[in-house]
Amino acid sequence: MRLYLDTADVSEIRWALSTGLIDGVTTDPSLLAEQLADREPFTHVGEIAELVDGPVTVQVISIDADGMYREGRELARIADNVIVDVPMIEEGLVATRRLVADGIRVNVTLVFNAAQALLAAKAGAAFVSPSIGRLDDTGVDGSAMLGDVRAIFDRFGVECEVVASAIRSVHRFLDAARGGADAAAISPAVLREMLLHPLTDLGLDRYLNDWSKRIAKTRSGA
User: Fold this and answer.
1) In which domain, by residue range, is 116 found?
2) pTM of structure
3) Whether 121 contacts 96, CB under 8 Å
């Protein structure tokens, strides 16, 4: 299962890359807005794309097909590993088909049911991002929706990567893994949480304490 770091913070991306645990980066307009300050957006995205070997997703802002198509082409020129994020609306699927015809890889975002995911795949999307956390916020079980997407894609042999998005806890990450997601987009905070467990810390403390006692005993000649 691939892990994509959901952030536009270059320092966090550098940290995650140093662990060797992430396979790409996902961004959205909100994440980029937090980091840009006075920087030109394309410059910032270009820096991220240069750091990361895998996919780097960037969202279009327009909501009409022509605008999304133009923006998508501009974004794709930043780097070969840039994936164009297009929202799951009718105009978005029209733009997706046009972008795919130009050889540009598209990730359809803001997907909230399996029917939307299937339509995105039929439009030619290389990635589809069921938004688990946003569904959870409304009281709907996002992991159940993900399971539906996986079952339908497998049933019909749909070749489209399922990226579980808005994963806000280790529990939800594990649900996404069990549900058959090809990848999960997780925040730096969730990645750090995945690395930790109190019993791991307790076990390590015990190992070190026992070893220190053994060394002290050896030095005392006992």
Assistant:
1) 2-197
2) 0.89
3) no
Tell me whether residue 67 is exposed, middle or buried, using C-beta atoms within 10 angstroms of its C-beta: 0 to 12, 13 to 18, 19 or more. Answer: middle
Q: What is the CATH number of the domain that holds 176?
A: 3.20.20.70
Asked if residue 213 is part of any domain, the answer here is no
Residue keyed to tokens 């909501």: 63
Beta bridge partners of 5: 25, 186
Determine the Cα–Cα distance for residues 84 and 19; give it in Å rounded to an integer.
26
Q: What tokens does 141 get? A: 């079980």
Strands 24-26, 106-111: pairing is: unpaired
- Is residue 219 one of the residues assigned to a domain? no
The per-residue DSSP string of 86-124 comes to: EESSHHHHHHHHHHHHTT--EEEEEE-SHHHHHHHHHTT
In a domain, 203, yes or no: no
Asked whether the beta carbons of 147 and 180 are under 8 A apart, the reply is yes
The total number of structural domains in the chain stands at 1
DSSP 122: H
Start-to-end C-alpha separation, the chain: 51
- Residues whose CB falls within 8 Å of the CB of residue 117, separated by 6 or more in sequence, listed in order: 108, 111, 128, 130, 149, 152, 153, 160, 162
Tens of pLDDT along the chain (222 residues) come to: 999 999 999 999 999 999 999 999 999 999 999 887 777 889 999 999 999 999 999 999 999 999 999 999 999 999 999 999 999 999 999 999 999 999 999 999 999 999 999 999 999 999 999 999 999 889 988 999 999 999 999 999 999 999 999 999 999 999 999 999 999 999 999 999 999 877 887 888 888 887 777 777 677 765
Examine residue 13 and state whether it is found in any structural domain, yes or no: yes
